[in-house]
């Protein structure tokens, strides 16, 4: 791979200056081999996402320094053995995100803003600092955290907690919390919850990691993931030695037969409120999924990430309640209270429970006792239910504000997935495309957005803008202002 010292137009490979930076320690040749290996192991339909991830990481880590000129799309495609269109899409997407910059006839370069931010801080938290408007999904309103009630509970619990309770805890979790959570989940989510089989963990990410290791010990080597779905699942389960296999969705859930054709015995699913599409799996599709799991002696890993927030529909119970020996149920307080608490739970089939407990013990010796005691008391005294009611009312108002603002500034926008959760899907009219140009203009104006394409492999060729827009973490006035700013940025306000 080469980096041109002249203009990186598509004829740069013939310019005679193509090898100027080949020997630089931070130049592309120092990491091209890693890209080759990475793309060679990736399924054909995932190579675009893999290439984008590799480019992002190269910029973040400094292997691609700010100001580095990248190869032309033709050169990079030839070096990696992929289509030029795949590289062009990657360059355009990362330019929209601010990692790269480009100009007509001047080539593609590593941007300054991302590297400058990386030099200032090593904070790896998933945030969008500096955005004038932030519609990236995944975060509740942290200002709604019940500080006064939590502080009062903290003092009360600390005063009565016996000294012996501050020793090494049961790796499954504090008995009081497991009992309180079992009752809460049975009442609110319809799960079959035995406190003896409930494991307290540090959020769904750790629950999925524990399951990944346990399943690997049972001979499982691959796992099916919803497409579209959460990109984090591939990384989390991959770290446990499981190969991700993407499975398509339709309007009712996972496409029938997709899991069977793939050969996997385990799938991760979000049946109550699919992420990010917002659909609830139909009753028929739930039955089909469980029938499949039984037929292959497999499991469904159910991520109930925001099941407590619904607005315009009847409650949708957890899949685990239909077959607790085929479904491992995961949840947390990350969306309902605050992700920084790092408290979640896992209800697993009996045959996996002992391995999970032992892996949890060797991983971290259990979660902090005081925080567990606090949450147990908060749940038992009704504070958790009161907090959820307050949040649900606030989030419904914000959802309505967002849909109204889109209707005003982007007339003709189709919204879906709005009956529950903390985000919506917005499909803008054709006149707002193409999506890459729209995202680039939004980024230049300081509007943080996440396209639907970020979450899956589907790339419709209609050029329309498809957005996953989070609203819970913003006030109604900020939502209205942000949509107006977006409209002006794309020339429609």
From TrEMBL:
Region (Disordered): 1-30
Keyword list, A-Z: DNA-binding, Pyridoxal phosphate, Transcription, Transcription regulation
Top-rank taxon, per record: Bacteria
Keyword Transcription among record annotations: yes
Matches recorded under PROSITE patterns: HTH_GNTR (PS50949)
Designated name of the protein: GntR family transcriptional regulator
Family membership: In the C-terminal section; belongs to the class-I pyridoxal-phosphate-dependent aminotransferase family.
Organism placement in taxonomy: Bacteria, Bacillati, Actinomycetota, Actinomycetes, Kitasatosporales
Entries under InterPro entries matching the protein: Aminotransferase_I/II_large, HTH_trans_reg/aminotransferase, PyrdxlP-dep_Trfase, PyrdxlP-dep_Trfase_major, Tscrpt_reg_HTH_GntR, WH-like_DNA-bd_sf, WH_DNA-bd_sf
PANTHER family the UniProt entry points to: HTH-TYPE TRANSCRIPTIONAL REGULATORY PROTEIN GABR
Keyword match Transit peptide: no
Domain HTH gntR-type intervals: 45-113
Pfam family, one: GntR
Positions with biased composition (Low complexity): 1-20
Source organism per UniProt: Streptomyces camponoticapitis
């Amino acid at each position: 791979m080469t980096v041109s010292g002249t203009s990186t137009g598509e004829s740069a490979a013939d310019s005679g200056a193509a090898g100027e930076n080949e020997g630089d320690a931070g130049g592309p040749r120092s990491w091209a081999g890693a890209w080759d290996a990475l793309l060679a192991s990736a399924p054909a339909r995932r190579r675009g996402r893999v290439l984008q991830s590799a480019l992002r990481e190269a910029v973040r880590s400094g292997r691609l320094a700010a100001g580095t000129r990248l190869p032309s799309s033709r050169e990079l495609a030839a070096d990696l053995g992929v289509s030029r269109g795949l590289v062009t899409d990657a360059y355009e997407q990362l330019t929209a995100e601010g990692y790269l910059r480009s100009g007509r006839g001047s080539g593609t370069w590593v941007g300054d803003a991302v590297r400058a931010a990386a030099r200032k801080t090593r904070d790896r938290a998933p945030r969008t600092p500096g955005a004038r408007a932030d519609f990236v999904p995944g975060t509740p309103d942290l200002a709604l955290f019940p500080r006064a009630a939590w502080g009062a509970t903290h003092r009360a619990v600390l005063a009565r907690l016996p000294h012996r309770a501050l020793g090494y805890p049961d790796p499954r979790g504090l008995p009081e919390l497991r009992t309180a959570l079992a009752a809460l989940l049975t009442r609110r989510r319809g799960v079959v919850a035995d406190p003896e089989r409930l494991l307290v963990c540090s959020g769904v990410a750790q629950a999925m990691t524990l399951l990944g290791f346990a399943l690997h010990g049972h001979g499982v080597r691959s796992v099916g993931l919803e497409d579209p779905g959460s990109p984090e699942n591939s990384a989390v389960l991959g770290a446990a030695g499981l190969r991700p296999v993407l499975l398509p969705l339709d309007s009712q859930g996972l496409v029938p037969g997709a899991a069977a054709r793939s050969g996997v015995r385990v799938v991760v699913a979000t049946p109550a409120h699919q992420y990010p599409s917002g659909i609830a799996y139909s009753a028929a599709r739930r039955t089909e999924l469980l029938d499949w799991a039984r037929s292959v002696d497999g499991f469904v890993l159910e991520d109930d990430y925001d099941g407590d927030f619904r607005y315009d529909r009847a409650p949708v119970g957890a899949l685990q309640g239909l077959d607790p020996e085929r479904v491992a149920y995961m949840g947390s307080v990350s969306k309902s209270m605050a992700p920084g608490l790092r408290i979640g739970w896992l209800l697993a089939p009996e045959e996996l429970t002992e391995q999970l407990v032992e892996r949890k013990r060797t991983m971290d010796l259990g979660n902090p006792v005081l925080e567990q005691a606090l949450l147990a008391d908060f749940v038992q005294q009704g504070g958790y239910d009161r907090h959820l009611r307050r949040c649900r009312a606030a989030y419904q108002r914000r959802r309505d504000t967002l849909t109204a603002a889109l209707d005003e500034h982007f007339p003709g926008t189709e919204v879906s997935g709005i009956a529950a959760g903390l985000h919506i899907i917005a499909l803008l009219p054709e006149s707002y495309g193409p999506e890459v140009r729209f995202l680039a203009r939004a980024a230049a104006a300081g509007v943080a957005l996440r396209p639907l394409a970020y979450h899956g492999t589907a790339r419709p060729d209609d050029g329309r803008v498809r957005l996953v827009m989070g609203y819970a973490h913003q006030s109604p006035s900020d939502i209205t202002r942000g949509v107006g700013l977006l409209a002006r940025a794309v020339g429609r306000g």
